[in-house]
Design a protein that fits this description.
- The complex is a heterodimer of chains A (155) and B (149).
- Chain A is mostly helical.
- The longest helix of chain A has 27 residues.
- Chain A has four helices and no strands.
- Chain A has a single domain, classed as Ferritin, core subunit, four-helix bundle (Ferritin), CATH 1.20.1260.10.
- Chain B has one domain.
- Chain B is built from seven helices and no strands.
- Chains A and B meet through helix 2, helix 3 and helix 4 of A and helix 1, helix 2, helix 3, helix 5 and helix 7 of B.
């Protein structure tokens, strides 16, 4: 009565793997969003956006590697993403960064809620914390209050 | 996969290494995590939230120029306490009494940093329906601590 599951099936829950794929999709979208935002931001904020994009690139690479190690095929980035509003100036670019960070927060919290694996929880909490700080800095600039989300990632 | 139905920690640890490498600070904190069967960490986290709110309130009473920086933190910590009470099924507790002294920006930062560490330490062992709330609180507190530096 053995199942068709391969011998090296990992211990990470299927729901957590699905949440990691959602997180990877959010990280792809965040990187694309910062790429667009940089074009409209003044130089000092563009530098911040590039640093934040680099942080997302590190997260994306770690999630991709983790999924690959767990025998899953990481979801690919889309060629382009629909923005929730037209991005044609610096204000909209900063608001796009807020959206990208908010989406990432939701996906990282979902990973935490779907795994009992301590190591994965610790990694996801670290990602949630770093993303909260980036989110707070962009929300400060766009005038959203409170700048620091009170329950980061709560859907 | 002989007896690995429940946990195969070695395999798991290796397999999430790519992500775990991002979390050295958090990993270092987890030695203080609660063990299975330890006391429920939520009441202490709720008390810490009330104490932080009271400390921030005292600090901005002593120096109203801090209102812009500390009022959002005070409000957030009050909301954290209320949400933890809901998760505990406890009636809302009254706000903590203002501390007699020590309410300044640095004291608030130290307190909220300790609260972030306590919440983070609870994250690995909490049941799934509670971990999201506590992780969000940990991330929020860590961010306030960073921004007050």
């Amino acid at each position: 009565m053995s199942s068709a599951r391969p011998r090296q099936v990992p211990v990470i829950e299927d729901a957590a793997l699905a949440a990691l794929q959602d997180t990877l999709a959010a990280e792809h979208a965040a990187l694309w969003s910062y790429g667009l935002a940089v074009a409209f931001l003044p130089e000092d904020l563009a530098d911040e956006a590039r640093a934040d994009a680099a942080a997302h690139a590190r997260l994306r690479a770690a999630v991709e590697q983790t999924l690959t190690d767990l025998g899953r095929r990481p979801v690919s980035a889309l060629p382009a993403y629909a923005t929730p509003f037209p991005v044609e100036d610096a204000d909209a670019a900063a608001r796009l960064a807020v959206v990208a960070e908010s989406d990432a927060l939701v996906s990282w919290r979902a990973v935490l809620e779907r795994t009992a694996d301590r190591t994965l929880r610790e990694a996801a909490l670290d990602a949630l914390t770093g993303t909260t700080l980036r989110s707070a800095r962009w929300r400060e600039r766009t005038g959203e209050r409170p700048a620091v989300p009170t329950f980061p990632g709560r859907p | 996969m002989t007896d690995g139905t429940a946990t195969t920690p070695g395999l798991t640890r290796r397999r999430v290494l790519a992500l775990a490498a991002l979390a050295p600070v958090v990993a270092a904190c987890t030695a203080a995590g609660t063990d299975d069967g330890g006391p429920d960490p939520l009441p202490a986290l709720a008390d810490a939230a009330r104490a932080d709110a009271a400390l921030a309130a005292a600090a901005l009473t002593a120096d109203p120029t801090l209102t812009g920086r500390l009022e959002p933190l005070r409000a957030a910590r009050a909301e954290h306490a209320a949400a933890l009470d809901v998760a505990l099924g406890a009636p809302p507790a009254p706000a903590a009494a203002a501390p007699a002294a020590g309410g300044d920006l640095a004291a608030v930062r130290v307190a909220v940093q300790a609260s972030a560490a306590a919440a983070a330490a609870a994250v690995p062992d909490l049941p799934g329906e509670r971990v999201g709330l506590v992780a969000s609180i940990a991330a929020c507190c860590a961010t306030y601590a960073e921004l007050l530096t």
